Amino acid sequence: xxxxxxxxxxxxxxxxVRQRKIAIEEHFVDPQQVRPNFGDSFGGEFAQDGxxxxxxxxxxxxxxxxxxxxxxxxxxxxxxxAGIDVAILSHTIGGVEGIADPAAAVSAARRVNTFLxxxxxxxxxxxxxxxxxxxxxxxxxxxELKRAITELGxxxxxxxxxxxxxxxxxYLDDERFEPFxxxxxxxxxxLYLHPRLPARAVQDAIxxxxxxxxxxxxxxxxxxxxxxxxxxxxxxxxxxxxxxxxIGHLGExxxxxxxxxxxxxxxxxxxxxxxxxxxxxxxxxxxxxTSGNFNDQALITALLTVGxxxxxxxxxxxxxxxxxxxxxxxxxxxxENDRRKICYGNAAALFGLAGK
Length: 356
Fold this sequence. Notes:
The chain is of the alpha/beta class. The protein has helices at 58-69, 73-82, 102-121, 138-151, 178-187, 200-206, 220-233, 236-239, 254-267, 278-284, 296-306, 322-331, 336-350, and strands at residues 21-28, 84-91, 127-132, 156-160, 163-165, 168-170, 191-194, 245-247, 286-289, 311-312. It has one domain (21-350): Alpha-Beta Barrel (TIM Barrel). It has 13 helices and ten strands. The strands form two sheets. It has an eight-stranded parallel beta sheet with strand order 1-2-3-4-7-8-9-10. β2, α3 (102-121) and β3 form a beta-alpha-beta unit. It starts with 20 loop residues before the first strand and ends in a 6-residue tail after the last helix.
């Protein structure tokens, strides 16, 4: 006997429209690089052992490279399949940050930013861009920031972890970057802090014998979370309350640990003090993205920590699939209002893309 189907007579007169998306951690590579060095810098400092590239096997890295260099056909096709209206492009690791010579870093940043602006202009509205910054020379970085935003029309900056300055590793809480933070605040554009491999000494000490843990599987998260905590407890957001920071992968573990970190900080015997709690800076100055972390439990933790207004959609292209990211967020167990904010509304507001 055939199943008797209940008649639907009160459905909507218009078919549901797929959720619009802006994706904001979508990478490209400088075309002048012979091949991208997924480990560290333009100079190829990461030692490849023949079996892994910062935790990637060679076959994976080969496909990633091909996807990375495709700035038109395959990328746009995947964006269309995922319902992504606009991708905000940024240079992958390794980038300008790994160039130890300041003059060379400045030259590379200017070249990459000019190239990116040309790609954005020729994309028919499908791309926007985050500029690379030569922080090895703070004065030049501030000048390049102004050029990138006011002349090239890029929407913010991407910093891939610490910057090499000779043998030093310089983090964004360094006092030399105060004018840079002031300019970011004045221009009202965000800084996206992307992971970078831990320093070689850290790799040798903690990850010896376990190269599979160095990169995206684990090492990226504590390296980036520590960088954020240096900024928070170093007073960057107290001195620059209008600064906006973005971190990926649903917060690099910080939403889960924020309460414990703050509690332990308040018990510590040292002299550092901040105006607010870590949880407050996460809610006021820091935005999270879904890049490469398509997980309901992580999303709910992030929502409970910072709220839907401070979470944005990203896929981590080409290291992950935009179609997988879209399929997940479209079915995630959250309210439709929050889904709209995360997929489109928050990024449109933060980056000034409301008309896109």
